[in-house]
Amino acid sequence: MSLFDYIILIGAVLVGGWSAFKLDKKQKKAIPLVLSFSGAYLLGVTILHVIPDLFHRPHQGYNYWMLGGFLLQLLLEKLTNGIEHGHTHALPVKSYNRMLPILIGLSVHSFLEGFPLGGYQQLAADLAQIDDHHHAHTAGNIHQELLLGISLHKMPAAFALVSMMRLSGFTNRSAWISLLVFSLTAPLSAFFAQHFMAHSSWLPLIMALVAGSFLHISTTILFESGDTGEHHFSTWKLSIILLGFGLSLIHFH
Predict the structure, then answer these.
(1) Model's pTM, two decimal places?
(2) If exposure means fewest CB atoms within 10 Å of the residue's CB, which of 27, 54, 70, 144 is most exposed?
(3) How many degrees, rounded to 5, is the angle at CA 222 between CA 220 and CA 226?
(4) Confidence (pLDDT) at 124
(5) CB neighbour list of residue 193: distance below 8 Å, 6 or more residues apart
(6) Is 158 in contact with 182 (CB distance < 8 Å)?
């Protein structure tokens, strides 16, 4: 992770939250399109790159960790109420006791997302030693794809967080503080993975856990991104989803 990567990761959250203050009702209609693209792109990168690279290593039960990540995300949604999917709704009562579990769940979710960003290059370097046909230089490409997918995913989540707080009657100051906490969680975990877990046997297991979480998040986004409650996709939204899948294929060899 370079300084520029950290700036992008934090900036995506701040821009997403800022848009909840500045965009008018018509402009906010673009948020579901960003969400649909990020869901498709993240799903493509996870299936085409992250999962194959994990299972290219000597098998260590990664399938169980992936399933655990999928279930963990289900549990986190009990706290977040689906904010990471772009859900916006007011709390029944303005209460910091109600807001705190949501922020904790969202921060844990975000913290997990940062691990692949900090650890993927080491994973690819290990694979290069296992298999001469796996070139470590592809790690940079996959890292950038993950960075793009995660950053785009965070923008609607940040938008939903700020919108929910404003609808619930929280002050702008409280919303910005919550947004700042949310923006720092993924960079912190990326830094931790890069500098303290680079050679840990736990790193690929955590990445498998995160891959399972990505599968849940991305598929839920796509299932919920229809234009009606019947999972109907408009031609425009379907094109955005196909674009996300298509771009995830660029560095797949």
Answers:
(1) 0.82
(2) 27
(3) 115
(4) 58
(5) 114, 115, 116, 117, 118, 119, 203, 206
(6) yes
Number of domains in the chain: 1
Inside any domain, residue 28: no
Nearest alpha-carbon partner for 156 in 39, 243, 77? 39
- Say which amino acid occupies 231: H
* Element of type H or E holding 79: helix 62-80
Most confident region among 100-109, 136-145, 194-203, 229-238 by mean pLDDT: 100-109
- Return the amino acid letter for 102: I
Query: Is 117 part of any domain?
Result: yes
Residue 137 placed within a domain: yes
Q: The tokens of 201 are what?
A: 């046997």
* Cβ–Cβ under 8 Å, residues 167 and 88: yes
Please check whether residue 24 lies inside any domain of the structure.
Answer: no
